[in-house]
Structure formats: structure tokens, C-alpha cells
Batch of 2 targets.
Target 1
Amino acid sequence: MTFADRRARPQAVDVLVVDDEDDIRELLELSLMRMGLGCDSAGSVAEARARLASGRYRLCLTDMRLPDGDGLELVEHIQSAHPGLPVAVITAFGSIETAIRALKLGAFDFVTKPVELKALRELVQHALRQADEAAAEAAPGARALIGHSPAFEQLRTQAEKLARNQAPVFIHGESGTGKEVIARHIHSLGARAGGPFVPVNCGAISPELMESEFFGHRKGSFTGAATDKEGLFQAANGGTLFLDEIGELPLAMQVKLLRAIQERAVRPVGAHAEEAVDVRILSASHQDLGRLVAEGRFRQDLFFRINVITLRVPPLRERREDIAELATHILARLAAREGGVPRRLSAAALQALQRYAFPGNVRELENLLERACALCEGDEISAADIELQPDQSASGWLADTGFGVGAQHDEPGDDVGEDGADEAERLRIVRALEQTRWNRSAAARNLGMTLRQLRYRLQKWGME
């Protein structure tokens, strides 16, 4: 059967291929038909627009250079006129900067010429999975983003656009702004929504165990390795690996992480061969990675690899108009947990919250409301229940918690005694954990105790 005969076979049309080179176009069409997919083709931007207007497709593959325009123009047209249609660009080797521009405009992914058929098949499979799950925005389990302020609406639009491609995203924002919530939202709206979402706090893993935690290990590879164990990369295979506080990674581990991302393969500790993994990397930090690079504490090549696109999460003080909606959502969740009726904020309480600086952001708002619910005797939370000073600044809040600049900390002993620690010490430790987003290693360093001492106290208090 000739290529022309195969093209003539009746089948559903799934993919629009846009390229002005006949040989490239036929290669792509033949490869797609071997995957059981029907194709239409176009040789220009104008012809592609006409095809898109008259047909329904699940994917568009477009070359960058076309006779009457370029692929970027077509990407923009599809984003505005055909939202939800994945579009991938084909670019000449060496034009990665142009490809990144396409990703920022909303392209799903890109492949370089000469096209590797394996990479093309993987891209197509992910794209079609996304097209089939276009209703994921309303899917059960998709985590809603609460807020309609201009700053948050911009973040929501960017996140939903980034969900449609596979580019690495670096999420930057202060502690407590909800970086993991944003990462989960991107995952839940993308082609990998049916796969696992694996979050890991890079600062909470012991440096000695990092390689085993990330890549897994084989039985007998070191003392205590009684069985084979899969790592975080294997656990996230087919889904998303979220590297929270990536700036905490030691330099030695950064080298190994970079190789795993580049090669899409990992070697478990004690294994002789690498294992292929298919994960999308989302990362986050409250730190300025650019500054860490300049200080020699973060590898520049890894920074460029994970920072293809940066998503900034605004602090709560930049979206004060969202506080009422956030508070309503949090109070409803607290009531559901306790099995009661949601409490409501008095006008004075809401005004107090809206004037507050919120150095701890949304997480601090949750903590304040949970405490207020415990103190409140009726159905309405008053300003007195919240116990805020409206003019309290971030530096003042840090000073109150004992972690401001120059703060002195009491040195805890090695044991808390048979009767447990007193309330003052427990409060100090809880505040330290909240400040570090319950990163126990970082909290222990701030408190001047060992991680083992901190764990012992948490176990004593039933907080482990």
C-alpha cells in the first residue's frame, strides 16, 4: 500500500500538521498514522487558520518558519480562537530561545529538527491525553484557587496556560503564599492529571539519604537497605514531581538532579543501569535563586533548566481584597472538620484582617482563624477573638515570634523530662515550625537543637 493510499483511508482526523516542507510534512503524517491517528496538513499560517476554522482537532503541530508568518503567530491565534487545543512547535536545533517564547505564549511543548520519532510519539501521547481531559478544569480533585483580585486573576490565568505545556516551571513566593497549591492546580489541569503528584520538601531530607530518596536503592546497597525501594522520581513516573524549597539542595545533589532531568533517567543506589522516568518538574522556593547562583550556592546550569518559566505568587498583602473570600472558605473547612456550623467574621474583625500585614500569608490567616474559632464563644468572630494589632509589620511579627534579626534563643537541653516540656517551649517550637513551613530540619537549626531532639519533643506532645 502506498503512502497516498494510506492517506486516502477514511479515519477520524486528530492532528493538524503545519509545515511548508513536503518531506517533513509527510514524515510527520506517516509517523502519526502509525500511531493510529488521522492527519490534516497545511503549508502556511493562512491555510492553517482555514483548517482550524472548519475542522475539530485534538492537536496541532506547527513549524516555526512558514511562508506567510511564523509558528508564534499561530500559537497566539490558537490560544485566543481555539482555547484548549494543544499546539506544539517544531524548531530548528539551536533555536531553543524561540521555543521558550512559544511555551510562554501557551504552546504545549516543542521538538527540534531533525525530529526524533521517539520524542515525537511521547509528545503526541501527552498532548492527546490533555485534549481528552479538557474537562479537567471541573474534574473532581482539582484544587480551586480562592480569590478574584487582579493580582490573583493574573496568577490564575498564567497557571492555567502553563498547565497546557510540559515546560519546567519555577514558582517563587514568600512562605505561606500557597506555592504547593499552585503546583497542584497546574498538575490537575494538565495532561498528567491522571498521574501522580509527588511533593517533596528538599530541605526536610537528610543529605546522607537524598540520593536514595530521590532515585531509590537496591537491596543491600548500604547498611539498612533490607529491600529494594523506589525513589521519588519513580513514584512520580507519568505525573509531576514538585520540588519545594529547591534552594535547600546541597550542591552535590544538584549535579545528580540536573542529570536526571536532562537524561530523563535515574540510577538507583546500588544499581548498574539507569531507569527511564517520565516526569514533569515543578519547583518552588521563597529564596531568590538568582542570588544563590551569584553566591555559588546554586548551580547556574540547574537554575536555567528548572527556571524556563517563572510564576510569581503574590503575598497576601498584595491581594487584600481576597481576604474575605479566603476567610469564608477556611471557616467552612474548619466547621466541616469539627462537624459544626461555619462561624462568620464581624465587620470589625474583617477590617482588622484587611489592615494586617500578614508576614505568614495565607498559612498565617488559617492559623489565626483556627485560633479565633477556639476562642470565640458564639457564631460571630470579633476583632478581640483575632487579637491583632492592625499596624503590626512583618518585622514586628518576626520579633514577637523570637526569630527577628538578632533574636536570642534559649538553648534547650537534651531531654524534656518525664512530665513533658512546658507550654512556653512548646509554643516557641510550634512558631519555629510554622515559620519554616513545618520543615523540621530548618526549625531545629533555628532553635539551636538537633533534629533528633526536636522529633523527641514532637513525639512527646503527639505532634509527630
Note: The longest helix spans residues 117-132.
Target 2
Amino acid sequence: MAWDRLQYALDKRLQNQIVSPVIIKVRHGYLRDVYAEIASNYDLSRYLMRNFFMQEIMPYGLVPGQMLPAFDMLTAWMWREDIYRWAEDRRIEKIYYDAPMYALMDVVPAEGIYKWGKMEFTTTYWTKKIIGADIANQKGFTGKGVKVAIPDTGVALHHEQLGWRVDFETVMPFQRVDGNGHGTWVATCIGGHRAEDWDKSRKLGKRVIVEGMAPDTQIMAIKCLGYGIGTGSTSQVAKAMELALEWGADVVSMSLGGKEEAQNPEDDPYYHILETYLQHNIVPVIAAGNSGPDQYTVGSPGALPQALTVAAWDPIKGEIASFSSRGPTPWNDVKPDVAAPGVNIDSGCVGYLDLILDRREDRYSPLSGTSMATPHVSGLVACMRQAHKQVLGKTLTVNEIKEMMSRWAEDNGIVKDNIQGWGLIKWDIYEWWLETQYGAKI
């Protein structure tokens, strides 16, 4: 039926708006024909953008009429009547609202190892020890040969923790600089080399060391969030995810999200994208969101079943952060899946977020959020992926990671919940699983 092809969240919005950004999922083999038909009537949309909707559109940096062939999708701004008409076309599988996406971040005071004024914080050097990534590195598993893609606010290629070894792409016209700092923080947490936050070391009288979880991993930073505060659209994130697929990413780290408005997983535009990821054995590591402590707050795309969804854990208090989003999902799946450190953690950073703590551009900043927890997991998974290939000659998948956590939890009498999932993901759990599942030791 035609109405089944229209996402509920989009249909609801169309009651009050005459034009909307959309993502259209096309049946395989018809993408170019549908795109050509829509493009032939696109002059009016361009006129609207130039003359009426510039103030509303520009914060999201929308680019109309884009094809995402890897997912049989296209994006456009369309009149309400045209959307309803296309929903009746048998070549169309689903039409989704092209929702705004945001970099997920929050600054939550917490006790830490270092004290700066009234704030206490720790660093990635110490949180790395909590999840056991330091042990993985000592055993030779540093993420070497593993590609991690980061759709985010971009990256500072010149940052000393990264050393000009990051591949960079952008889907945002005329935007290449990480003026926000969010993407740089994520990249340094995943793959940053050991470095010293000299400014804080000098002022605190002791060394403040930072270090990424997988310092030899190959990083691709894709700028799909921008405009200072870290905003973008679903279609821009989807394009970044397509680039990650084309680039051959093993892990895609997504410290971003928006409100989950779908009533079932298939009604979320990311569902088909993540299905494609699973077919290519890509591990999607996605933030749960920072809308806790209420239930039903896990965002999109973290709520989807294919994602390895990450909650934020306070590494000093030893508890889940109050801001960390909770499940269940709208379709009553238990989410998140795992937890990782995500409260007041110092790592390499630039731009706006670099000024939060001390109003100085010192290239490092303690940040909080599930955005900070997610790259911890991505880096650890990169180490696991390398080990899996070297020890077993196999490719580690997201479903195997979930099975690993599930079996470990069951063995320890832990029941997955909607607050922290199966709990903290750690390297020693992976080693336990290798031995129990495969009889292999590292």
C-alpha cells in the first residue's frame, strides 16, 4: 500500500509543512530513472532554497538531489503533494524525513585524577587502562591494518597526536576545517599517539598524558557535521557512511545522532544502510545519546538492532553517567549494548570545544558524553579485529561482538539492561571468549 511507503515521522510533519527534505529508498534497479524524473522537476526546489528557505536550510548544509547508489537511496527537497505522489509509485520502497543530526556531547562535572579549578578530570591514558586497550597494545594489537571511519565534524590533520596520517573527506561544500573539535577528539581517542597536554602539565605540576586506544589504526575522517555547533542532516551522514563503505572501512565510529521517531526499525532510514554494513562485515559503533536518565531516549541510529550501541560510564565514580540515554527502543529492544568511559576525559581537541575548560587554545580538552564513550569502543574493536585476523584468520563481526558480550554476561550472572547493556566492554572479555569459543590463547 502507498501509505506503507511513507515514514510515519514524515507523514506527521507533512500535516504542518508544505515542503520537506526527504530520503527516498528506491527498489533496486530503478534508482537512476527515479532520480532523473525528480531532477527534471527540481528547478522549483532550487528557487525555494535561494529565496524562501535559506535561513532554515543553511544550518544543516543541505545539498539537494544527491544519489546514494550503494544504498539505492536519493535525497531531495520536495513539495508535500509530490511526496505523497511518489509514495504511490511502485518503484519506491520508503520515503523518510531527512532529519537533522547533531554531534553528541555534554560536559558533566565528575571526580577525576586531575583537578582544574572546581573541575576534576581524567585522560585517555587512564581510561585506556580501564577497558584494557593498553594490554592489547602491549601484546602487539594496536589496530594496525584496520580502517576506522569517523563521520563527524572533520579533523585537525596537523594535530600532534595524529601526525598528518589521517585520510580526510568532506560531504559539506566549502567546509574542511574542524572548527568544533568534536571530530578531532574522537579521532585522537581512537588512534592518537601518546602525547602530553603540556599546558595542563605545567599548571598542575604533574604530567598529563593522553593516548589513543589503537594508535596504529588507519583513520578516515569524513566531515558531515559542521556550522560550529556540529549540525548536519541524515542525508549528509548517509553520504559519509557511503564514503566509508567505498573506502573499505572495517569499523565506523559514529558519535552522533538524532531523536528516534520510527515506530519500527525498518521505518528508520539508517536501517537499510546498516544492513548493507552488516553484509560487508563493517562494525558500526554508535553512541546511545545524551538524553538520559529517562527511558526511551536512545537516539537514531543507535537504537537500530544492527548497531553496537554505546552508553557513557563514569570512570571515576564507577557508574553510568546520568546523561547517558536509556532504552528500550520504541519497538522494545533492549539498548544500549555496551558501556565505555565517557565523563570528563582529556584528549586532543581543537576549535570551539578546546575553549570550554580554560578559555585557552591549548589543543586538548576534557569532554563528556556518549560521544566520548563511542571512540573508546571503536578503538578497542579495532584491536580486537586485528587480533581476530592474526590469531584465527577470520573477520570479527558486530554480531560476534554481541555474542561475546552476551555469553560473558550469562557466565557472570549478568542480565542485559536498558541502562548499560551488558556492561563495560573490555579486552580481557575478548581474550576469555577466544579461549572458550575457539580454544585460542594470546
Note: The first strand starts at residue 19 and ends at 26.
